């Protein structure tokens, strides 16, 4: 999915180019994160501790459908964009509605893998298990809590509340 215009800091794509070339140690035009050497290079290049790296990796299923850990440049850019956006939200004022909407909308579409317009439990299970570490809430309980109208699915507004609740500064 194309990364929304205007949200990326200047130079993001050239940073990705450089990062990709650094991690693509075998110069095959792909990054293979199932290789320890490439995975470790990526973690070091992004300067992430083990927890943050695990969070980044938990997004892999959304970019790497067959889960073989192999990425091209665009897929890697999207993966890292998600992570930058989530970190960026942590310093975004709650009144910056436009930015919050654009980021939430992009994430929502990304997570809604089957494009049904709603997020089902299976689609967000991985994120809830990651958030479990932050919030201590069990995945299913958490899902029911986010699904405030009890429809069994997460609609955009419910998703936005989740993102605001977890990532935006209090
Ligand atoms: Ca869906
Ligand atoms: Ca709902």
UniProtKB/TrEMBL annotation:
Superkingdom of origin: Eukaryota
Short name of one Pfam family: EF-hand_7
Keywords: Calcium
The UniProt record lists the keyword Calcium: yes
Calcium in keyword set: yes
SUPFAM superfamilies cross-referenced by the UniProt entry: EF-hand
Domain (EF-hand): residue spans on this chain: 51-86, 99-134, 141-169
Protein name (record): EF-hand domain-containing protein
